[in-house]
Write a structure and sequence with these properties.
Chain lengths: 148, 414
């Protein structure tokens, strides 16, 4: 008798939750910067709009189309970015990318990326790391355009 | 299954099928992407490198003559396999993609001009679409894309409307890698020839799976890849009618494709060598010959019947999944062994990962058919595809694993 497929650790409860009900999916009124990224390999995409007020990200709209890892990571990252300054947002994205790319981090990254740390489970599935990084690419593009 | 088609015996010839993946026996259902290799093909590579390795066509020593003999024998095997009368109509390429590019660069740029038209279909692999986009753009020709019907078969009325006196080439897949539909290429060839156009048949998904006779199809060009038909990667074939090959300029320049060379000019070798510049992929060409022996010994008719039985069974089993869209025609007489499916609940990549945990290899993504995905209104699908060594039991495992995956992503429970 065939074993039932084991549930990969990839699908952390928090990831599944955000994949099913992603946050920050409502359009925002004031768009100060936008970003977009597409994974040419699979066609998944992420669109992001940001509002920036008084030196901080005040509102976010994220529309990610694709797999659960893509949708969950985008939703989680949006949550972490709100209230951050442009510089802080860039640092967070950089830390997250380093973490997912198996780079050694000097400081305790958990404090820096907050809820995004659940995405670490994806690292055991190298082929899916790109799914978790698509949102970072789109958001990085948007953050770099703040004030431009 | 047919009594004289012993799938269990066949499976013993494929060592990789004994592998365990994530604690489960491998069920390899990604054959439209690439097939596995039987021992005879793997051994042919070892035998070549241990006993015959040397360059072909240019040595008077024994090894070179033996290697040349094996290499040219493989070419003859390919010719016989597809019903080509002359081995010199078989040009070695790296695969289907290079074969189509060869036709585009050597024939297309010479014979397609401003105001002419090229006809392709909505189900083409990128290799048979992007290549013709280039020719159309550079030559100021029109690229006509024939749409599909609601069950992803070629819209034959639209095809008939698109083939007129302006058309110089119809380039179309025999069987779709993405939705499985088999196109009536013999009929399409007649339509193309009626207006003086040539037809290129992309046989990447048909030559490995069914009997092919280029004389009967009356196609001008046929392209296919070795690695999808039990042969090594890196070897493929362009067949073209002799008079067309004779009229074509070389694709690449270099050694072996020339007859005489001066400082300022050169003359070309005879066909097929004028299209084979540089040291060829000798070992893999010989390997393709062994793959053809293997397929021929079993019989292409029997292989096709086996795959029809598997596909009928799979389509029947998939009816239990109301939440899945399954693409392609239901009539397996016009469908290859390909089951593409899509769920609104679970993304194809997540299905692919879950199935991999059960040891089942399928392909997920756009399958190099992004315009087709767009026409279906999805960004990607999951695709199971069958071959000679697949079994009903493997389809049962696939169905069970999909059921589990759908349940897991719907309820979040194991």
């Amino acid at each position: 008798m065939e074993r039932e497929p084991s549930t990969p650790k990839l699908y952390h409860e928090e990831i599944l939750k955000h994949a099913k009900t992603p946050q920050y999916t409502s359009r925002i009124k004031k768009v100060d910067a936008s970003g977009y990224a597409v994974n040419q390999f699979c066609g998944d995409e992420v669109k992001v709009d940001l509002s920036y007020n008084n030196g901080a990200i005040s509102d976010i709209y994220i529309n990610s189309i694709g797999c659960s890892i893509n949708i969950a990571s985008a939703s989680l990252m949006a949550g972490e970015l709100k209230t951050l300054s442009q510089k802080e947002a860039s640092a967070l994205i950089k830390t997250y990318k380093s973490l997912m790319n198996h780079k050694t981090l000097e400081t305790d990254y958990g404090n820096q990326i907050g809820s995004l740390s659940v995405m670490e489970s994806v690292k055991a599935f190298p082929i899916r790391i790109k799914c978790a990084l698509l949102c970072a690419q789109a958001i990085e593009a948007a953050v770099s355009r703040i004030g431009v | 299954m047919s009594k004289d088609f012993d799938v269990n015996k066949i499976r013993q010839d494929f060592p990789i099928l004994d592998r365990t993946i994530n604690g489960n026996k491998l069920a390899y259902l990604d054959n439209a992407s690439s097939s596995q290799k039987p021992k005879a093909v793997i051994q042919s590579l070892v035998d070549y490198y241990e006993n015959y390795n040397s360059n072909v066509h240019r040595g008077v020593h024994t090894l070179s003559m033996e290697a040349t003999d094996l290499y040219e024998t493989a070419r003859t095997k390919v010719a016989n396999f597809i019903g080509a009368k002359e081995p010199n109509t078989i040009v070695w390429t790296r695969g289907t993609t290079e074969a189509i590019n060869l036709v585009a660069f050597s024939w297309g740029f010479e014979n397609i001009g401003a105001g002419d038209a090229i006809v392709v279909s909505q189900m083409e692999h990128h290799s048979n679409l992007v290549t013709w986009q280039l020719v159309a753009t550079r030559q100021k020709a029109e690229l006509r894309v024939v749409p599909l019907t609601d069950n992803q078969t070629l819209d034959m009325e639209a095809l008939a409307d698109s083939i007129d006196e302006k058309v110089k080439l119809v380039s179309i897949c025999h069987a779709s890698n993405s939705v499985g539909s088999i196109n009536p290429v013999k009929e399409i060839a007649r339509k193309a020839h009626a207006v003086g156009a040539k037809i290129l048949v992309d046989g990447a998904q048909s030559v490995p799976h069914m009997p092919i006779d280029v004389a009967d199809l009356d196609c001008d060009f046929l392209t296919f890849s070795g690695h999808k038909m039990l042969a090594p990667m890196g070897i493929g074939v362009l067949y073209a009618k002799q008079e067309i090959l004779e009229s074509m300029e070389p694709f690449m320049r270099g050694g072996d494709m020339v007859m005489e060379v001066w400082n300022d000019k050169a003359t070309w070798n005879s066909i097929p060598h004028k299209f084979e510049a540089g040291t060829p992929n000798v070992a893999d060409a010989i390997g393709l010959g062994y793959a053809i022996d293997y397929l021929t010994n079993i019989g292409m008719d029997k292989i096709r019947s086996h795959e029809i039985e598997l596909t009928d069974y799979a389509l029947e089993q998939f009816k239990q999944f109301e939440e899945l869209d399954v693409y392609g025609p239901k009539d397996t007489s016009i469908r290859g062994g390909i089951i593409p499916f899509h769920s609104e609940v679970v993304h194809p990549h997540d299905i692919g990962t879950m199935l991999d945990r059960a040891g089942i290899a399928i392909r997920t993504g756009h399958h190099c058919t992004m315009p087709l995905m767009r026409s279906l209104g999805v960004s990607a699908t999951a695709r199971a595809s069958f071959y000679i060594y697949n079994t009903v039991e493997e389809i049962d495992r696939l169905v069970d694993a999909i059921a589990h995956t759908l349940k897991y992503f719907s309820t979040g429970k194991k």
